Amino acid sequence: MATFLYRVGRLAFRRRWYVALVWAAVLAAVGLGALKAPGAADEEFSMPGIESQKAFDLMEQRFPGATADGATARVVFIAPSGEKVTATENKQAVEETVAELGNGTQVASAVDPFQAKAVSKDGTTAYATVTYKVAATDLTDASKSHLEKAIDDARDAGLTVEAGGSAMDDGGGAGGIAEVIGIAVAAVVLLVTFGSLAAAGLPLLTALIGVGVSMATIMALSHALGLSTTTGTLAMMLGLAVGIDYALFVVSRYREERARGRAPQEAAGMAVGTAGSAVVFAGLTVVIALAGLAVVGIPMLTKMGLAAAGAVVVAVLIALTLVPAFLGFWPNAVLKRKARKSGRVEESAEDNGGTRWARFVLRRPLPVLLLGVVGLGALAVPMTNLQLGMPGDEAKPTSATERRAYDALAEGFGPGFNGPLTIVVDAKGADDPKGAAATIGKEIGATEGVVSVSPARFNDAGDTAVFSAVPSTAPTDEKTKDLVTTIRDERPGVESETGATFEVTGTTALNIDISDKVQAALVPYLIVVVGLAIVLLLVVFRSLLVPLKAALGFLLSVLASLGTVVVVFQQGHGAGLLGVEQTGPIMSLMPIFLVGIVFGLAMDYEVFLVSRMREAYVHGDSPAEAVTSGFRHSARVVVAAALIMIAVFAGFVGESDSMIKMIGFGLASAVLFDAFVVRMAIVPAVLALLGDRAWWLPKWLDRILPRVDVEGEALSRRPETDHAAADRADLEPART
């Protein structure tokens, strides 16, 4: 492995123009393909194997067109204090507004609340439902402006008017600001780390090129492979993250090799042969984590994982080829200022912060280990109370009209009004379909926790009915989840009595089912991903205990980060400091995303840090000296890489959307715990306590495992060359 990559690095350095032109051609080709490819389709979220999805599929089959994904807006009218919306002036203002809403060019219908009996019992609140002919993503600016103008006119008439629904979705877009902030912070960290604008800029430039290739490829294939506009979100985030990390490690190793007196081309080859080997195996662990998302069984999540895995592969290829090619164009530019003119660097024998920290841990391994484990364990305890869900408008800040509309409907019609259950009755096997539907409706209506049941609506064939059941509790309340479970548990008796079957669906039931499925898939996902990674790390480190230690440390950091997310976003401690106005369940997909992304980054830090220790140990250092050597060479860049990731993820905490806050906070805290507590403290403490045993491998396992030279042992046996002559030969083409 190391010898092959060494040759790749030298070839890329020597044939830099060809390498640069190839990548430019690839970027141009996929960019042109992205421009000419049909637009990405809207994501059709599906969750095979859950009841609510089966019921929804049945509705699509029996009620053709009834489940069309047209945008909707629910406009809520609230009378002035002490008045009712049914008062003459207020009623007239509402009716005029509804009539105006119905005049929109993309509007299919606007239902008058007084005709639809959509007025609260106390007469203070009413709502109108506006249905559009197109999906929310296809709404024009003119249609949105028309909706906003009608609402403003109603407010001018003295009413309080708020609106929710998919038509109010602004499509996000704030993520771009967070990415810009993250890149800016990354540039500052790289500049401080390297002390060179070129050395700081090269990882950013190559990472952006890699992200450009990945995103253009995803866009070019989106229509053919059924990828949505959201598929590339994870690919962009991780592609940028690992792209910077991988280039950072190669450039850092190149500077080390130059400091040892190697010629530029030789240094590039050595950098790719050693750090590049670590890049390959770190990339493989990330790909395993992302491809493992298929275990969850959510098609959308599988596509996102595979697209992000492709972006990681591109980042690895960029680091192995384009980075050494750019080093060939500017072999001295990435060096420190003192060495740029001469092109010669002397390797510093002085201790740095990494060696001083390593020696501190080596002197007190047990206290450091106990402090790290107990601290992360304490942070992980709240995770035992983790509640998963899919928070909606109730999780938005009170400054958002969607949140105010949600609160107004909950106050006027009851907390369960915002999340009704949809009951789908399949009466094909019943002697009296209408009687069966009526009996089922009566039984469900009598269930404790159900406030009301709507009249059943039959399809044209008369064999399927649909009605709504409104719970007495909010959609994200645990009592609502218990209610859905109760209705389903009592189903066998009702079905045997009527001869008809029924299923529970709707947004609330769907969210409950998704949460249950994700929670059930989390442990198998961890087993698959961590298990495969342990096998891979066994090959890399040829040690039994180091991979186990790496996996256990990762689990500890992930559980601790989930615990902190629960403390802030579910229990509300410190929520005000982050601008979180409403606490509630944790987004269902959050743990899976956290595990997948952080596992990849954690294994990056593990491979880069411990591979240098393994390299020193293989070359004859004692276990303690190997730990110190690993920190001397890798601690600075690992810290820089972690700070960059923390900055990128923490940038999302400043967004107004609580879901974005949650993801950003969770990822930032996970990287913080894993990089600085697990990799920088627990890992050296464990290695110090284990000594030579850390690198022990049973002989039978040693014979089975394939041998890959990650440490560059074969390269160290290469005969030394005339560095001065090679230096002149390397630089001559650059001058011409």
Structure overview:
This protein is of the alpha+beta class. Among the domains are: 110 residues, Protein-tyrosine phosphatase receptor IA-2 ectodomain (Alpha-Beta Plaits, 2-Layer Sandwich); 98 residues, Alpha-Beta Plaits; 228 residues, Up-down Bundle (Multidrug efflux transporter AcrB transmembrane fold), CATH 1.20.1640. 63% of the residues lie in helices and 7% in strands. Strands 6, 7, 8, 9 and 10 form a 5-stranded antiparallel β-sheet that branches. Helix 7 runs antiparallel to helix 10, helix 8 runs parallel beside helix 20 and helix 18 runs antiparallel to helix 19. The longest helix has 35 residues. The two termini are 33 Å apart.
Task: Spell out the key features of this protein.
alpha+beta, Alpha-Beta Plaits, 736 residues, five-stranded antiparallel β-sheet, 11 strands, single chain, Multidrug efflux transporter AcrB transmembrane fold, 25 helices, four-stranded antiparallel β-sheet
